[in-house]
Specification:
Elements (H helix, E strand, L loop, with lengths): L1 E5 L6 H12 L3 E3 H11 L2 H12 L5 H12 L8 E4 L5 H13 L6 E6 L2 H9 L1 E4 L5 E3 L19 E2 L6 H24 L3 E5 L4 H12 L1
Parallel strand pairs: 1-3, 1-4, 2-3, 4-8
Antiparallel strand pairs: 5-6, 5-7
Helix pairs in contact: 1-8, 2-3, 4-5, 6-7
The structure holds adenosine monophosphate.
Adenosine monophosphate binds next to helix 2 and helix 3.
Length: 214
């Protein structure tokens, strides 16, 4: 099963992908996480990506397509995978089709996480991340960080991602409307798009997701 999770930043794609990975074993392929790993390693690619990511801009299509192409050839992807945050442009979606064609595969389903913009801003601006274990927290809605129970304690390092700062959130949403929203139309035309109400509680969204993939 090859799944694409499409939707604005903050709509819960990553959270749902992690749950589905835990249940089905299909790896979560997040280009955002791959780029953050490149940044942590201090590579040239990471440095170039960071400058764009911190401003809320997209990293060039060629960079993310090449990251994904390498990743999906790994053996753990042979029974399927979940693309989280990729494709983000119509050109990336077309490249993905070509890459998959080479290995005689195709996108099976696209889950479109639909959500009101005001709610997205609240979610993103209150989001905090542990740089050590990658766990996400929220200052208003929880889960709240508890140093006592943190697996990586005392290593845990809770930060607000630079791209979750208010002015960058606005930019990311503009970029989403301009570049990523058309990807939904691309998959609607291919009859692969199914819409989820991402504003519901995470467990309800997950149940809807399970139904969607059948
Ligand atoms: P995410 O963690 O998915 O919200 O991604 C964080 C940032 O990484 C985005 O705002 C972009 O700057 C960059 N990024 C992640 N995925 C892509 C992609 N498919 N295409 C271009 N840039 C991306």
């Amino acid at each position: 099963m090859i799944l694409v999770f499409l939707g604005p930043p903050g709509s819960g794609k990553g959270t749902q992908a992690k749950k589905l990975t835990a249940e089905k074993g299909w790896p979560q392929l997040s280009t955002g996480d791959m780029l953050r790993t490149a940044i942590s390693s201090g590579s040239k690619l990471g440095l170039e990506a960071k400058a764009l990511m911190d401003k809320g801009d997209l990293v060039p299509d060629s960079v993310v397509v090449s990251l994904i192409e390498d990743r999906i050839r790994a053996t753990d992807c042979k029974d399927g995978f979940i693309l989280d945050g990729f494709p983000r442009t119509v050109s990336q979606a077309q490249s993905l089709d070509q890459v998959l064609q080479k290995i005689e595969k195709k996108v099976d389903q696209v889950a479109f996480f639909e959500m009101d913009e005001k709610e997205l801003v609240t979610r993103l601006s209150g989001r905090r991340t542990c740089t050590e274990c990658g766990k996400m927290f929220h200052v208003t809605f929880g889960p709240f960080h508890n140093p006592e129970s943190c697996e990586k304690n005392p290593l845990c390092n809770i930060i607000q991602r630079p791209d979750d700062l208010p002015e960058v959130i606005t930019k990311r949403l503009q970029v989403y409307h301009h570049s990523t929203a058309p990807v939904a139309e691309f998959y609607r035309a291919a009859k692969k798009l199914k819409t989820l109400n991402a504003a519901e509680k995470p467990e309800s969204v997950y149940q809807a997701l399970l139904k969607l993939i059948g």
